[in-house]
Design a protein that fits this description.
This protein has about 325 residues and is an alpha/beta fold. Helices cover about 45% and strands about 20% of the residues. The termini are far apart.
């Protein structure tokens, strides 16, 4: 019996050593530290990918902006990333070899004002200044598309743009110092609404819903080709993380709240209001409106057919 026990122990040890010898596949994902990248933070901390690929590990790499994420791809420092549509289109235009794996999230953007006489963009005077965080991001696309739909020209308000970050714009709008309007994200929209600055319009008033405004998970084509099993495991785990957040799972919400520095009750309120959504639904994904405006405004050199840049299409 003693000899048999020793033999069995040796076999178990051999299996353990063999398992330890397997190389871990690290999936490096560049994200911004915000709610839109929330599912990645949850799947990393809960090791969700290990359910489907025991030797895989997700490493979320915090980047300061979409531009920084694109630079990380150019430097071959990441395998995947979470990007807005416009930043993705700029990357494609610059030859970054990545494609869309899945939508991840969606948030509503709005144009706010501190002038109660402004009910629509036709009420904006030449003296009114409009705060934007960038002339090439999704917030800019909202202003351009709104101007085209309501004023007849996408660049009708360009001479009135003042560049400032979202938080500074919110303070300036509330205090009525230098600007009359601002394109706001969901967090600042609530702040300015509470301060008495109404919403002029938001992206859904422009027929830009989640299918046209999704935040995307993109992957390097080479990683996808060489690690197809890990890639599929990643997407399955991403779906698990999204389900946890949509089910208001306490642990998942705690992880996200701690990561972004926003209490979970506020996060839940954004979701309940429809300002924040998590989804991997590819049905109806349509980037043509933003792609068209990105080309028209000179952000990219040509219009892209998005189907050419989606895995599996």
């Amino acid at each position: 019996m003693k000899t048999r026990f020793i033999a069995m122990t040796a076999v178990v040890a051999m299996f353990l050593l063999a398992g330890c010898g397997k190389k871990t596949t690290e999936v490096k994902i560049a994200i911004s530290n915000d709610l839109l990248s929330g599912p990645i933070v949850v799947m990393e901390e809960l090791n969700l990918i290990e359910r489907y690929a025991p030797n895989a590990k997700v490493n979320a790499v915090i980047s300061g902006s979409g531009t920084a994420i694109n630079e990380a791809f150019i430097g071959n420092n990441v395998d995947g990333g979470i990007l807005g549509i416009t930043t993705f289109l700029v990357g494609i235009d610059n030859g970054i070899p990545y494609k869309v794996a899945s939508p991840v999230s969606y948030s509503r953007l709005s144009i706010q004002t501190n002038n109660l006489d402004i009910k629509n963009l036709r009420d904006v005077s030449p003296d009114d200044k409009i705060a934007l965080s960038s002339i090439t991001g999704t917030t800019a696309m909202i202003l351009y598309i709104a101007a085209e739909q309501h004023l007849g020209r996408w660049d009708a308000l360009n001479d009135q743009i003042v560049l400032m970050n979202n938080n500074d714009a919110t303070i300036a709008l509330i205090n009525n110092t230098g600007i009359t309007l601002a394109v706001s994200d969901m967090t600042n929209r609530i702040k300015v609404n509470e301060a008495g600055c109404p919403t002029v319009l938001d992206n859904e008033d422009l027929s830009l819903d989640g299918s046209k405004m999704s935040i995307l998970c993109v992957f390097n084509e080479d990683f996808h080709k060489k690690n197809e099993g890990t890639y599929e495991a990643f997407l399955t785990a991403l779906g698990d993380a999204i389900k946890l957040l949509n089910d208001r799972d306490e642990q998942a919400l705690d992880i996200l709240a701690r990561s972004v520095g926003i209490d979970k009750e506020t996060i839940i309120s954004y979701m309940d209001l429809g300002y924040l959504r998590y989804s991997m639904n590819m049905d109806g994904l349509d980037l043509s409106v933003l792609a068209g405006m990105a080309f028209k405004s000179g952000m990219v050199s040509s219009e892209k057919e998005i189907a050419d840049f989606v895995f599996g299409k």
